[in-house]
Amino acid sequence: MVLSEPYWDHHIPLPKLGPLQSRLVTAFVALVCFINSYDGDFVFDDSEAIINNKDLNPDTPLSNIWKNDFWGSNLSSNSSHKSYRPLTVLTFRINYLLAGGLHPIGFHVLNVALHCVISVLMIDVFAILIGGLVHDGRGAKLSLSPKASFLAALFFASHPVHTESVAGIVGRADLLCALFFQLSFLVYCKAFQGGDKKFSVLWIFGSILLCAVAMLCKEQGITVLGVNAAYDILMVCNLNIYELAHQLSGLLMRLALLFLGGSFLLYARWRIMGTGPPSFTEVDNPASFAENVILRIVNYNYYYSLNAWLLLCPWWLCFDWSMGCVPLIKSATDWRIVWPLLLWCCLMGLVYQALCSQDSNKRRTLTFGLVLLVIPFLPASNLFFRVGFVIAERVLYLSSAGYCLILAYAVGFCSCHWKKHKVSATLTLLCVNVARSAQRSQQWRSEQSLFASALSVCPLNAKVHYNVGKNLADRGNQSAAVKYYREAVRLHPKYVHAMNNLGNILKERNELKEAEVLLSAAVNIQPDFAAAWMNLGIVQNSLKKFDKAEQSYWNAIRFRKKYPDCYYNLGRLESEGFFLNALKINPNVASCHGNLAVLYHRWGKLDLAKRHYELSLRLDPSAPGTKENYNMLKRKLELRQRTVG
């Protein structure tokens, strides 16, 4: 197959750099965009995937990472998320070992470095997709589109939608998956170094093996087989409507290898999941629970249009898009229905140009742009199975490569027809992307700034308000936290975690009646919520509803067998009840008053402790230890009085 240099490559307003220089510039741009995240904290999902994940601890057997999911839960458990990414967890474990503990700098530095490497490799990927795999007489690889592939790689390196994958440590899964996705594609291309009619089965098997590695980093890696097949059909065989039979036997053999390899990997993945696919709730993905199939399809397409908008205008970025952030379209009169219609009009226009243009370079570039845009996104599309999110910026990491390729073509096309301001327009676009990426990366440095940034993007998202409240409570600002917890419950009246946390704060503020109402509602909505049962028991104990408190503690233990805090509280309840019952029978037993005072002293009920210490000393002034404890309590009360004063 004879390939020609794209005519629009010359018109792209970038200097023609050598291979090394273009790679260095791309890596530098990627570094500038996200370097300010290198000393950020562990934020959002990092808590579960890293801080609370025992599989990172060197004392945990290494074999556990092959049995557990990404979050450290056993894959056979019904509560498992079923996200099987052992190689990603292994890199976390290596970070832990090298740093001697959970120090986020090493985790962040590796993420930024991976993004730089991936951005550099994108130059090779784009060069092949635009200009084909071409070699000189000595076998050295040639690029027929040096400027176009360089510009597309710069767009990829600086796209702000990548911030979640790069600045969020759990985004390591997307980065590693993308890296081995690229390597699988490049290795597949090497199978054709001997010419169009010859291919190496060994290189094809190598590509399938790298696909398996990508899947062990994140499930999305399987989609590289689709990209490889598209490259084979459209580039290697130069398939078109009029020439179908050329090289058909070799093509069928290669497609069969890809199909068999992919089928084996999917079967292995299914067996690993153990108990079947994960279960998600309506708040995770409300459209997938719509009873009307038409409404479901309309809302899925609306989600697609929002993803497309994030690629086109990545200004409204949010760490979480669930819980009311994107209200469902429920009728044909909803004006938002325009957006999926507009999306499909644009896609059909691109498909028409990709299939029917007289310019073969244009057809090739747009076709591969669409292939890279659509195929990696398919696992997140809800077409094959229900996913656990509405929108997730991290799943656009690979798909954005297709968008960047189409955008580079658009810049080249416009530069051919509009000579004025083409340099300034291109540089402005790149600079805006870099600035927005740097700004967004700064927001991901801490939970406080990350959660606060989401309030303006998704003010209807109950989870955003919950996380802002939780962050404020963790920093000791409980009064402000109450406001956000209340708003989270208002936006989502069945948000049991917000109810539980709000009930805890109200309990500490001695607003026991409202705390009891909230916690009772939480356990009615989710009867197996062990923590809420325990907190309800504590509140009922404070309200002297001892029988109800005991029942709540036992309910908590029933749903969580290993719950030492609850056993402790149950022991305290029974001991208090014992002393109170004893005093009902005989109120003049000094030891009962003294022991009850010690309990209240430990629980922080200082006024009750003072009363029972005094009663004990009045009945028995020489009671052992009681006077010393009473003096300690008086000093504590005096200190509190001075602090208040």
Automatic annotation (TrEMBL):
Pfam family, one: TMTC_DUF1736
InterPro entries: O-mannosyl-transferase_TMTC, TMTC_DUF1736, TPR-like_helical_dom_sf, TPR_rpt
Biological pathway: Protein modification; protein glycosylation
Domain DUF1736: 276-348
Keyword Transferase included in the entry's annotation: yes
Chain ranges passing through the membrane: 112-134, 175-193, 199-217, 248-268, 300-317, 337-355, 367-389, 395-414
Subcellular location: Endoplasmic reticulum; Membrane
EC number: 2.4.1.109
Keywords in alphabetical order: Endoplasmic reticulum, Membrane, Repeat, TPR repeat, Transferase, Transmembrane, Transmembrane helix
BP GO annotations: endoplasmic reticulum unfolded protein response
Domain of life, source organism: Eukaryota
Membrane topology of the entry: Multi-pass membrane protein
GO cellular component: endoplasmic reticulum; membrane
Entry GO MF terms: dolichyl-phosphate-mannose-protein mannosyltransferase activity
Start and stop residues of the TPR repeats: 462-495, 496-529, 530-563, 590-623
PANTHER family named in the record: PROTEIN O-MANNOSYL-TRANSFERASE TMTC4, PTHR44227
Assigned protein family: Belongs to the TMTC family.
Protein name per UniProt: dolichyl-phosphate-mannose--protein mannosyltransferase
Taxonomic lineage of the native organism: Eukaryota, Metazoa, Chordata, Craniata, Vertebrata
